[in-house]
Design goal:
Elements (H helix, E strand, L loop, with lengths): L3 H15 L1 H12 L1 H31 L3 H9 L3 H10 L8 H14 L1 H14 L8 H35 L1 H26 L6 H37 L1 H41 L9 H17 L10
Length: 316
């Protein structure tokens, strides 16, 4: 006779496996999403940071204010923490126009590494095959240019938020935070569509973009409260390298938020499609477009063709 407690435990285990958290955990382990987040963080440090510095050099030539000024406003830094960022991004020599253009173009080209890591993670989240082609690289290059514009827009909004806070108080600051969230939502809605080459429906990508926009808005607000104090003591203890460490940790959290938001959106889309299919007794609608389904089918055909044929048994 079965123990009722064992039946309840088994039911609880099945419920947990089918829950959003259980599905998310399995998907993270299957796709190694944590490894992709680490890779994206490394690419952000090596590629996105130089891109922001290069674009900041352009702004400094045009406006007299460089990357450090906008970063201070974005993070809400002041005192010793702001001084550390100013020293970290200080320009000590004059840069010629040719060197400036070359640095900007080089940083954009290397930022395609950020696009490649995100594209691969998005493909695995949506269980799509990997695309490696010249057209894919050109998409990554265009995305890198848009990343530079998106980053500078967020930094400019951070500066505006600080100025509006001094003028209008918290309502102005909250208004800028909402604009930052809307910009992030639109950028990552487009980014998923662009990097996935239109293989997933726009509607299916919207939930992930909404999650990323909401989570980053919360993160940016907390950043302005926590970052000044967190930046000050590592700089006092370890010098400028302490500031670099704090910024790297912040980028790591940002990468987790981005991939976590996209994954959450994909899981919600799949769950809603399954619930709709169960209620109406139909097959769940695929979130993939015709191009996406053709890409998945061709990858399955290629995989099955590579499998070795079974060896017939020898008759004695």
């Amino acid at each position: 006779m079965n123990d009722p407690s064992e039946g309840r435990l088994e039911a609880a285990r099945r419920w947990l496996e089918n829950s959003l958290g259980g599905r998310g955990y399995r998907r993270v382990r299957e796709t190694n999403l944590d490894v992709h987040a680490l890779a994206l963080c490394a690419q952000q440090v090596l590629c996105t940071a130089p891109l922001i510095v290069a674009m900041g050099a352009v702004l400094q030539r045009e406006t007299g204010k460089g990357a450090a000024y906008f970063i201070d406003r974005f993070f809400g830094l002041y005192g010793q923490s702001a001084e550390a960022v100013n020293r970290l991004f200080a320009r000590t020599t004059h840069i010629s126009t040719f060197a400036l253009v070359f640095a900007l173009a080089t940083s954009i080209v290397f930022s395609t590494g950020v696009a490649a890591v995100q594209q691969r993670a998005f493909e695995q989240i949506w269980t799509l095959p990997r695309i490696i082609s010249v057209r894919s690289y050109l998409r990554q290059l265009v995305w890198a240019v848009m990343l530079g514009g998106y980053s500078m827009l967020l930094l400019a909004l951070g500066r505006a938020g600080r100025e509006l806070h001094e003028t209008w108080g918290r309502p102005g600051q909250y208004g800028v935070a909402c604009v930052q969230g809307a910009v992030t939502f639109l950028f990552y809605w487009w980014s998923q569509h662009w990097l996935l080459a239109g293989r997933v429906r726009w509607h299916a990508l919207m939930r992930g973009a909404l999650a990323v926009g909401l989570l980053t808005t919360i993160m940016f607000r907390l950043t302005r409260v926590i970052m000044p104090g967190q930046m000050a003591w590592p700089v006092r203890a370890y010098g400028l390298i302490g500031g670099v460490f704090v910024l790297s940790v912040w980028l790591m959290i940002l990468c987790v938020v981005i991939f976590g938001g996209v994954l959450l959106g994909a899981l919600l889309t799949e769950k809603r499609a399954e619930n709709h299919a169960e209620r109406h007794g139909v097959t769940a609608r695929s979130p993939l477009t015709m191009a996406g389904m053709a890409s998945a089918e061709s990858a399955e055909s290629a995989e099955s063709a590579q499998k070795p044929a079974p060896v017939p048994a020898r008759q004695g």
